[in-house]
Each structure stands twice: as C-alpha cells, then as structure tokens.
Specification:
heterodimer, A: 115 residues, mainly alpha, B: 131 residues, 75% helix
Chain lengths: 115, 131
C-alpha cells in the first residue's frame, strides 16, 4: 500500500469513527439535565471516546501526506452523519441533503484526483 | 448625559444572530489554525512520552481544536443551522489556502474545484429542506 493510500484510509476511518462519536453525543445529550452528574452517562462517554479515537486515526493519517488532500476528506463525516441520522434517529432525508451529499462526495473525488 | 441614546439598538434577535455568525466565522479561522498546528506537530512526531509532551505544535493544535469545538457548540445553540453551515465550510478553504501558502503544498485545479464543490455541498446540505 502506498503512503498516500494508507494516509487516505486512516483519514477515512477517522471520519467514520468521528461521525459515530457525533451520533453518540447526540444520543447522550438527550439525557442531560441541570445536574452536572448527568454528563456521566454511557452514550456521552462513548461519544467522547469515539471522538478521541477518531482524532488519533486522523493525526496518524495526516502525518505522511498533504494536508490540502487529506483535510478535505474529513467532510466525508457529513455523509456518514446523514446516514446515522437516518438509521438511528429516523431523521428525514430531504432532496437538499442528498444533493449536498452528492456534491461533497464529488468534491472529495476531485481533491483525491489532485493528489 | 449619555450620547449613545441616539444609536439604534439592534433587535435582540438580529444581534444574537450576528454574534453567532461572527463566532462561527472566528471558529473557521481557529479551526484551520488548529489543523496547521496538528499537521506541523505530526511532521516531527515520535512515539515517546518526552517527545509527545514537548511537541508544542501538536498540543497547541489539539487545545485550539477543543476550544474551537466548544465555541462552535455555543454558536450553533443560538444560530440558524442553514445560515451557519456554509460559513463552517469555510474551514476547508482556509485550511487549503494555508497548506499552499504556509506548508508549500502544490496547488492544482482538481484540489481547487474539489474544495469549491465540497463547500457547495455542505451549504446545500445545511439548507432548510422544503416540504
């Protein structure tokens, strides 16, 4: 595997883990009350752990590559986020969201071609 | 006597909106700075405790990233998502420009078209869907 492909793969994995973290934060935030102890709930802690894990993969990924190629790949997180929103929270998939998703994927492909 | 009485006081709603707009805009610049610092730190990364705790760019980058995330949460609390999404996407523009200018990475048409397409995509995704 070339360094570029492994860097891209790491950032790709980071975007998936990060977006899952976001979904867990969203789930955990529903349990927040006025009490500071409400922060200690399973979903929120899993969300924070996934976020931290994602940043390790990301940092590892950008170590040996161009930031101008790898950072735009973070926008893939929006695509997964939309998927989780539909799967876990049953949020509506509007035409705008699908159009935006398509544009982001297209943009990431373009950036990849420029690497 | 106060001289400020003649100054039009913005409607609280529009003021809150402008504040979250400015806050998110500042976040995009801070976010890009964080990315640049993390990249710089990772360029001389070594998996040793002493090297890690003395890696100032990496620590500064992640600290900035954390502050940035908190600021973003505050801004999104009051602002309208559809207006703030396109601004958030500016982070991609700043980070790419900074990679060209400060890290000396080569610029090309594919990268530039790609960034514009991604920013458009994020903006479209954040738009309030019509029923």
């Amino acid at each position: 595997m070339t360094p570029l492909v492994s860097s891209m793969l790491l950032v790709f994995v980071a975007s998936v883990i990060g977006s899952l973290g976001m979904a867990f934060l969203k789930k955990g935030s529903a349990h927040l009350t006025r009490s500071i102890w409400s922060f200690v709930n399973g979903s929120l802690l899993i969300g924070i752990a996934l976020f931290l894990g994602s940043s390790v993969f990301y940092a590892w990924g950008i170590k040996n590559g161009q930031l101008s190629v790898l950072y735009p790949m973070v926008s893939l997180g929006y695509v997964w986020g939309l998927l989780w929103a539909k799967l876990f929270f049953n949020e509506a998939m509007t035409r705008q969201k699908i159009m935006g998703l398509g544009l982001i994927l297209l943009g990431v492909c373009f950036v990849g071609m420029g690497s | 006597m106060s001289t400020t009485a003649t100054v039009a006081i913005p409607h609280p709603d529009s003021r809150a909106r402008r504040n979250s707009f400015l806050l998110v805009f500042a976040c995009t610049i801070l976010g890009s700075a964080a990315q640049l610092l993390i990249k710089t730190g990772m360029n001389h990364f070594s998996p040793q405790l002493l090297a890690l705790v003395t890696n100032i760019p990496l620590i500064a980058g992640y600290t900035l990233y954390g502050i940035n995330t908190l600021m973003m949460v505050l801004a999104l609390k009051n602002g309208e998502m559809s207006m703030l999404y396109p601004i958030i996407a500016l982070t991609y523009v700043w980070t790419t420009l900074a990679s060209y200018l400060l890290l000396g990475e080569p610029s090309n048409v594919y990268k530039n078209v790609g960034i514009v397409t991604i920013v458009l995509g994020v903006a479209v995704m954040g738009r309030r869907g019509k029923k």
